[in-house]
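Why do we bother with holo predictions? Because pocket geometry can differ from the apo form. Keep that in mind while you read this record for cobalt (II) ion.
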Amino acid sequence: MEPYIPLKTSLEVKGIQRTCINVAGILHSLAFFIRAGITTRDINRYCIEEYKKRGLVSSFLGFKGFPESICTSVNHVAAHGIPDNRVLMEGDILTVDLTAQLEGWHGDAAWTYRVGNLGPDARRVIKAAWHATSEGCRAAKAGGRFGDIGEAIQTAVARYGCQVLENFVGHGIGRSFHEEPMVLNKGEKGTGRPLVPGLVFTIEPIVTLGDVTVKTLEDGWTVVVEGGGLCAQYEHTLALGGSETRILTFPGGQAPWDYKTPPY
Ligand code: MF3
Ligand code: CO
Ligand code: CO
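The structure, written out:
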Protein backbone atom coordinates (compact mmCIF):
# COMPACT_ATOMS: atom_id res chain seq x y z
CA MET A 1 0.00 0.00 0.00
CA GLU A 2 1.18 3.51 -0.70
CA PRO A 3 2.02 5.51 2.41
CA TYR A 4 -0.44 8.09 3.64
CA ILE A 5 0.40 11.65 2.65
CA PRO A 6 -0.76 14.33 5.04
CA LEU A 7 -2.48 17.24 3.26
CA LYS A 8 -2.28 20.70 4.80
CA THR A 9 -5.09 23.15 5.39
CA SER A 10 -4.53 26.73 4.26
CA LEU A 11 -3.96 27.72 7.89
CA GLU A 12 -1.25 25.09 8.19
CA VAL A 13 0.32 26.25 4.94
CA LYS A 14 0.46 29.77 6.45
CA GLY A 15 2.48 28.37 9.34
CA ILE A 16 4.94 26.66 7.00
CA GLN A 17 5.07 29.80 4.88
CA ARG A 18 6.16 31.91 7.85
CA THR A 19 9.09 29.61 8.44
CA CYS A 20 9.92 29.51 4.74
CA ILE A 21 9.92 33.30 4.39
CA ASN A 22 12.48 33.46 7.18
CA VAL A 23 14.61 30.67 5.75
CA ALA A 24 14.56 32.31 2.31
CA GLY A 25 15.35 35.68 3.89
CA ILE A 26 18.47 34.26 5.49
CA LEU A 27 19.57 32.62 2.23
CA HIS A 28 19.03 35.95 0.48
CA SER A 29 21.07 37.89 3.01
CA LEU A 30 23.87 35.30 2.81
CA ALA A 31 24.53 36.47 -0.74
CA PHE A 32 25.95 39.66 0.78
CA PHE A 33 27.94 37.81 3.43
CA ILE A 34 29.61 35.06 1.43
CA ARG A 35 32.94 36.04 -0.09
CA ALA A 36 36.46 34.68 -0.52
CA GLY A 37 38.42 34.55 2.73
CA ILE A 38 35.66 33.54 5.13
CA THR A 39 35.15 30.02 6.45
CA THR A 40 32.09 27.81 6.35
CA ARG A 41 32.12 28.09 10.14
CA ASP A 42 31.67 31.88 9.75
CA ILE A 43 28.57 31.14 7.67
CA ASN A 44 27.33 28.76 10.35
CA ARG A 45 27.80 31.44 13.01
CA TYR A 46 25.98 34.00 10.85
CA CYS A 47 23.01 31.65 10.37
CA ILE A 48 22.82 30.77 14.06
CA GLU A 49 22.66 34.51 14.82
CA GLU A 50 19.87 34.96 12.22
CA TYR A 51 17.97 31.98 13.60
CA LYS A 52 18.14 33.52 17.06
CA LYS A 53 16.93 36.93 15.86
CA ARG A 54 14.01 35.37 14.02
CA GLY A 55 13.09 32.79 16.66
CA LEU A 56 13.92 29.87 14.40
CA VAL A 57 15.24 26.54 15.62
CA SER A 58 17.52 24.51 13.37
CA SER A 59 16.02 21.21 12.31
CA PHE A 60 19.48 19.76 11.66
CA LEU A 61 21.29 20.24 14.95
CA GLY A 62 21.23 16.83 16.61
CA PHE A 63 19.15 15.26 13.81
CA LYS A 64 20.49 11.68 13.70
CA GLY A 65 23.54 13.17 15.37
CA PHE A 66 24.27 15.91 12.81
CA PRO A 67 26.69 18.14 14.73
CA GLU A 68 25.88 21.64 13.39
CA SER A 69 22.95 23.93 12.59
CA ILE A 70 23.34 24.17 8.81
CA CYS A 71 24.87 22.23 5.90
CA THR A 72 27.65 23.82 3.86
CA SER A 73 28.79 21.85 0.81
CA VAL A 74 31.73 23.20 -1.20
CA ASN A 75 32.58 22.28 -4.83
CA HIS A 76 32.58 18.47 -5.15
CA VAL A 77 30.78 18.01 -1.84
CA ALA A 78 27.32 16.95 -2.94
CA ALA A 79 25.47 17.23 0.37
CA HIS A 80 25.56 17.39 4.17
CA GLY A 81 28.87 19.23 4.43
CA ILE A 82 29.62 20.15 8.05
CA PRO A 83 30.71 23.77 8.63
CA ASP A 84 34.38 23.89 9.58
CA ASN A 85 37.53 25.98 9.14
CA ARG A 86 37.65 25.60 5.37
CA VAL A 87 38.38 28.99 3.82
CA LEU A 88 36.36 29.88 0.73
CA MET A 89 38.42 30.79 -2.29
CA GLU A 90 37.70 32.75 -5.43
CA GLY A 91 36.07 30.39 -7.95
CA ASP A 92 34.49 28.08 -5.35
CA ILE A 93 30.82 27.25 -5.33
CA LEU A 94 29.08 26.63 -2.05
CA THR A 95 25.66 25.19 -1.29
CA VAL A 96 24.03 26.25 1.96
CA ASP A 97 21.06 24.13 3.04
CA LEU A 98 18.84 25.52 5.79
CA THR A 99 16.00 23.74 7.50
CA ALA A 100 14.46 25.31 10.54
CA GLN A 101 11.24 25.42 12.46
CA LEU A 102 9.08 28.18 13.84
CA GLU A 103 6.15 27.28 16.07
CA GLY A 104 6.62 23.66 15.07
CA TRP A 105 6.43 24.21 11.31
CA HIS A 106 9.48 23.33 9.28
CA GLY A 107 10.76 25.10 6.17
CA ASP A 108 13.59 23.86 3.94
CA ALA A 109 15.60 25.54 1.20
CA ALA A 110 19.08 25.47 -0.28
CA TRP A 111 21.06 27.79 -2.51
CA THR A 112 24.37 27.52 -4.33
CA TYR A 113 26.48 30.67 -4.10
CA ARG A 114 29.31 31.79 -6.33
CA VAL A 115 32.51 32.90 -4.64
CA GLY A 116 33.91 35.61 -6.90
CA ASN A 117 34.41 34.83 -10.56
CA LEU A 118 33.72 31.26 -11.64
CA GLY A 119 35.26 29.02 -14.25
CA PRO A 120 33.13 27.57 -17.06
CA ASP A 121 32.40 24.26 -15.27
CA ALA A 122 31.10 25.97 -12.17
CA ARG A 123 28.96 28.30 -14.26
CA ARG A 124 27.49 25.38 -16.17
CA VAL A 125 26.61 23.26 -13.14
CA ILE A 126 24.98 26.24 -11.44
CA LYS A 127 22.86 26.99 -14.48
CA ALA A 128 21.86 23.35 -14.82
CA ALA A 129 20.89 23.12 -11.15
CA TRP A 130 18.98 26.38 -11.35
CA HIS A 131 16.96 25.22 -14.34
CA ALA A 132 16.39 21.76 -12.93
CA THR A 133 14.77 23.11 -9.79
CA SER A 134 12.95 25.93 -11.57
CA GLU A 135 11.45 23.63 -14.17
CA GLY A 136 10.57 21.09 -11.49
CA CYS A 137 8.71 23.84 -9.60
CA ARG A 138 6.97 24.99 -12.77
CA ALA A 139 5.72 21.45 -13.39
CA ALA A 140 4.35 21.09 -9.85
CA LYS A 141 0.67 21.85 -10.39
CA ALA A 142 -2.49 20.37 -8.90
CA GLY A 143 -4.09 18.15 -11.52
CA GLY A 144 -0.74 16.79 -12.66
CA ARG A 145 1.37 13.96 -11.33
CA PHE A 146 4.70 13.62 -9.57
CA GLY A 147 6.20 12.18 -12.76
CA ASP A 148 5.66 15.59 -14.39
CA ILE A 149 8.15 17.08 -11.93
CA GLY A 150 10.73 14.32 -12.44
CA GLU A 151 10.57 14.56 -16.20
CA ALA A 152 10.90 18.35 -16.15
CA ILE A 153 14.02 18.08 -14.00
CA GLN A 154 15.62 15.46 -16.23
CA THR A 155 14.87 17.44 -19.38
CA ALA A 156 16.42 20.55 -17.86
CA VAL A 157 19.69 18.93 -16.76
CA ALA A 158 20.10 17.01 -20.01
CA ARG A 159 20.28 20.33 -21.87
CA TYR A 160 23.48 21.09 -19.96
CA GLY A 161 25.00 17.62 -20.19
CA CYS A 162 24.70 17.32 -16.42
CA GLN A 163 23.43 14.56 -14.13
CA VAL A 164 21.24 14.35 -11.06
CA LEU A 165 22.34 12.30 -8.04
CA GLU A 166 19.63 9.66 -7.86
CA ASN A 167 19.68 8.84 -4.18
CA PHE A 168 18.88 12.37 -3.10
CA VAL A 169 15.22 13.27 -3.39
CA GLY A 170 12.74 15.89 -2.28
CA HIS A 171 10.24 15.21 0.49
CA GLY A 172 7.02 16.26 2.11
CA ILE A 173 7.44 18.75 4.95
CA GLY A 174 5.34 20.14 7.78
CA ARG A 175 5.35 19.25 11.47
CA SER A 176 8.32 17.03 10.61
CA PHE A 177 11.08 18.05 8.26
CA HIS A 178 10.97 14.81 6.32
CA GLU A 179 7.47 13.55 5.55
CA GLU A 180 5.86 11.50 2.81
CA PRO A 181 6.07 11.57 -0.12
CA MET A 182 9.51 11.15 -1.64
CA VAL A 183 9.86 13.52 -4.58
CA LEU A 184 11.94 11.79 -7.23
CA ASN A 185 14.06 13.78 -9.64
CA LYS A 186 13.17 11.51 -12.52
CA GLY A 187 9.97 10.19 -13.97
CA GLU A 188 7.55 10.31 -16.83
CA LYS A 189 4.95 12.94 -17.41
CA GLY A 190 1.46 11.72 -16.53
CA THR A 191 2.70 8.96 -14.20
CA GLY A 192 3.13 8.66 -10.45
CA ARG A 193 0.96 9.88 -7.61
CA PRO A 194 -1.47 12.69 -8.35
CA LEU A 195 -0.57 16.25 -7.41
CA VAL A 196 -3.41 17.54 -5.28
CA PRO A 197 -4.14 20.77 -3.37
CA GLY A 198 -2.78 20.70 0.18
CA LEU A 199 0.47 18.95 -0.69
CA VAL A 200 3.53 20.69 0.72
CA PHE A 201 6.91 19.31 -0.34
CA THR A 202 10.41 20.19 -1.47
CA ILE A 203 12.10 19.98 -4.86
CA GLU A 204 15.86 19.66 -4.50
CA PRO A 205 17.82 17.91 -7.24
CA ILE A 206 21.57 17.77 -6.67
CA VAL A 207 23.21 18.34 -10.04
CA THR A 208 26.73 17.39 -11.01
CA LEU A 209 29.03 17.34 -14.01
CA GLY A 210 29.76 13.81 -15.14
CA ASP A 211 30.38 11.01 -12.65
CA VAL A 212 27.54 10.42 -10.19
CA THR A 213 29.28 7.93 -7.88
CA VAL A 214 29.24 9.25 -4.34
CA LYS A 215 30.82 8.28 -1.05
CA THR A 216 30.40 9.41 2.52
CA LEU A 217 33.48 10.64 4.34
CA GLU A 218 34.63 9.36 7.74
CA ASP A 219 32.72 12.05 9.57
CA GLY A 220 29.63 10.01 8.65
CA TRP A 221 27.92 12.93 6.90
CA THR A 222 29.87 14.64 4.14
CA VAL A 223 28.84 13.18 0.79
CA VAL A 224 31.33 13.76 -2.04
CA VAL A 225 31.31 12.92 -5.72
CA GLU A 226 34.15 10.45 -6.21
CA GLY A 227 35.15 11.75 -9.61
CA GLY A 228 35.56 15.23 -8.13
CA GLY A 229 32.96 16.91 -10.34
CA LEU A 230 31.36 20.10 -9.09
CA CYS A 231 27.89 19.91 -7.51
CA ALA A 232 25.14 22.50 -7.21
CA GLN A 233 21.68 22.45 -5.65
CA TYR A 234 18.71 24.77 -5.34
CA GLU A 235 15.93 23.62 -3.06
CA HIS A 236 12.48 25.07 -2.54
CA THR A 237 9.50 24.24 -0.38
CA LEU A 238 6.25 24.44 -2.37
CA ALA A 239 2.56 24.39 -1.48
CA LEU A 240 0.02 23.22 -4.02
CA GLY A 241 -3.27 25.11 -4.14
CA GLY A 242 -6.21 24.37 -6.40
CA SER A 243 -5.38 27.03 -8.93
CA GLU A 244 -1.83 28.06 -8.05
CA THR A 245 1.35 26.64 -6.61
CA ARG A 246 3.19 28.80 -4.15
CA ILE A 247 6.97 28.54 -3.96
CA LEU A 248 7.14 29.31 -0.26
CA THR A 249 10.90 29.84 -0.21
CA PHE A 250 10.86 32.18 -3.22
CA PRO A 251 8.65 34.98 -2.01
CA GLY A 252 7.91 38.30 -3.64
CA GLY A 253 5.39 37.31 -6.27
CA GLN A 254 8.13 36.02 -8.56
CA ALA A 255 8.95 32.49 -9.56
CA PRO A 256 12.38 30.94 -10.03
CA TRP A 257 11.68 30.38 -13.71
CA ASP A 258 11.40 34.13 -14.21
CA TYR A 259 15.19 34.14 -13.87
CA LYS A 260 17.51 32.66 -16.50
CA THR A 261 20.32 32.42 -13.97
CA PRO A 262 20.21 32.64 -10.17
CA PRO A 263 19.66 36.29 -9.17
CA TYR A 264 22.56 36.00 -6.72
N1 MF3 B 1 18.32 19.62 4.31
C1 MF3 B 1 18.43 18.32 3.76
C2 MF3 B 1 17.20 18.20 2.95
O1 MF3 B 1 17.02 19.07 2.17
C3 MF3 B 1 18.62 17.27 4.81
C4 MF3 B 1 19.88 17.45 5.59
S1 MF3 B 1 19.94 16.34 6.88
C5 MF3 B 1 21.19 16.87 7.88
O2 MF3 B 1 16.34 17.37 3.08
F1 MF3 B 1 21.09 16.20 8.97
F2 MF3 B 1 22.32 16.72 7.28
F3 MF3 B 1 21.12 18.10 8.18
CO1 CO C 1 17.36 21.13 2.55
CO1 CO D 1 14.97 19.04 1.86
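Helices lie at 10-33, 40-54, 120-139, 146-158.
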